[in-house]
Amino acid sequence: MLRFSFSRKRVKLKKFLGIRARLVLLALILVAPLMLVRARSLADERARQMAAASVELTNLAQHSANTLKEVISSVETVLKSSAYIRASAGGIGRSCDILRASVPANLPWIRNLMIVGGDGRVQCSTLNALVGQDLSDRGYFRKALQTNDFVFSDFMIAKFDHKPIMMAAYPVSAIDKGADSVILASVDLDWISRFMNNLGSRPGISAALVDGTGIVLAAPEDQAGTVGRTLNTLPTLSPIAEAILGADHADGSLSFVTPDGSERAVNFSRIAGTQSRLIVSVNEAEMSAAINREIRTAYLQLLLVCLFVLLGALIAAEKLIIKPIETITTMARRFGQGEWTERAAHGRLPAEFVPLARAFNAMAAQLTARERELIATNDRLTVMASIDMLSGLANRRGFQSRLDFEWMKSQQYDSELSLMMIDVDHFKLFNDTYGHPEGDACLSRIGETLAAIAAETMGFAGRYGGEEFCLLLPNTDGARALEIGEIVRAAVQDLAMPHATSSHQTVTVSVGVASTRPTAAQRPGDLIEAADAALYAAKHRGRNAVVDHGFVRITDGAGPMALAS
């Protein structure tokens, strides 16, 4: 008993350590080192990406600050040029004309230029609506007169169109000490915001240009809602608003914790010539979220790779070894049960199994070839059973099959169906006079003629029996069928086959035509009977004639339906 139990355990162990388990173990040995190397590289990649993101952010902030400095510098240059014009042009009228003509089109952030007299009244403006306004109470105006230098204001709302602007001022006295005028320019803050868009649309990063009082002057497009608000009202910057605005140095950086508990790092830089500062705030957790997500994705991909490798090992065992054996075994079993068409597709088998598959296929090929010969022979016999070999047309069996089909089709689509029965006139006398070989030749030529007419009229021609032919015309009404009947009669007569015992001296045919729109109350045999009746009438009219039979169903109270013409 103990020996039997040991044998069973041994069999189970062999099954467990079969080809599948061995391939899985081999795959694990190959993949495990790759997993460890990949895990190490992902950690290094995270540190590298964080460093690269920090450097990129610093460069972007510096670039934006430099751009804003260039904007301020361009405004200062325009004001100084305008002050020189005012100092050298003489009267205010001429100065105003030159000022309006010299507004630079390539500096769209300058909304308008003004010349303001010492009393604070606007003497000239590129916006006529501002002429005459009193600006003597404006701090930037008084400061420009006091300092005799370039002055940039804080955030304000334009009275003209209520848009956020900043004002720049430069006294003409800086050039001509005897002058008391001041050149003013309003700066469009919407344009300033556009220069900061390279800092927007980045996770965890917020940026703002603030004036000396802490009001946001400009921001990237995705943070435009902060423009006009103070730093104290912005949750991400309120904790360090006083520290930034009160800083003595132009540039600096701070770290702090926001009210929601996130850690942020802030870089700020003062714009030369103004009290404005560019502030860039970074939420490190949000900025690194994308990198951490990539790392998690990479680990997930690594796990999936391991699963795919293990699955691939199992599939390889199934496909390369177990499946081929099962396939050939199944083929052999089916072959033994009489399924002679079964074949082993050796093109999809491993090379080691190809000779066995070829041997199996070669054995079955001979039997398959014999079976195909039998099928081909049966098909030929079926065709021969439906074709009249003399005329080349369908025989009566083939015609009847086609008539049944067209009858059902006409019923389904409610269409006309016409039939003509065609009989060779005095054909018995033709045979007696010229012999049966000539009679066969005559029928063959008539068959060829009918086949050509059937092809032209989309009809179906057949030999009904002896010297009698038929032509089935789907989708053809009685009038058109009568025309085709006349074509048939004339075509046969035009063959000019001699017939000495006929009154016409050539072979002719009589044609009976019947047409109907099939209904459930009718049957195909009714159409044949009507066409036969019309053919009988054509014979009685002297032959070589075409007669149409009115196919009408009538019912009397005494009995079944009858044909009437």
Question: Descriptors for this entry?
Answer:
565 residues, alpha+beta, six-stranded antiparallel beta sheet, five-stranded antiparallel beta sheet, 13 helices, 50% helix, disordered C terminus
Structural commentary:
This protein is an alpha+beta fold. The protein contains 13 helices and 18 strands. The strands form 4 sheets. Strands 1, 2, 3, 4, 5 and 6 form a 6-stranded antiparallel sheet that branches. Helix 2 (19-89) packs antiparallel against helix 7. The longest helix is centred in the first third of the chain and has 71 residues, at 19-89.
Poorly predicted spans: 552-565
Instruction: Classify the beta-strand content into a percent band.
Output: 15-25%
Shape: elongated
Query: Which class best fits the helix and strand makeup?
Result: alpha+beta
First-last Cα distance: 101 Å
Q: What level of helicity do the residues show?
A: 40-55%
Largest sheet: 6 strands, antiparallel
In quaternary terms, these chains amount to single chain
**Helix count?**
13
Using DSSP, what is the number of strands?
Answer: 18
Gyration radius, rounded = 53 Å
Mean pLDDT: 77
Topology of this structure?
Blueprint: H1 2-16, H2 19-89, H3 92-101, E1 110-116, E2 122-125, H4 139-147, E3 151-152, E4 156-157, E5 164-171, E6 182-188, H5 189-194, E7 205-210, E8 216-218, H6 241-245, E9 251-257, E10 263-270, E11 277-283, H7 284-336, H8 354-386, H9 396-413, E12 417-424, H10 427-434, H11 436-457, E13 460-465, E14 468-474, H12 478-494, E15 509-516, H13 524-540, E16 546-549, E17 552-554, E18 562-564
Parallel strand pairs: 15-16
Antiparallel strand pairs: 1-2, 1-6, 3-5, 4-5, 5-6, 7-8, 7-11, 9-10, 10-11, 12-14, 12-15, 13-14, 17-18
Helix pairs in contact: 2-3, 2-7, 10-11, 11-12
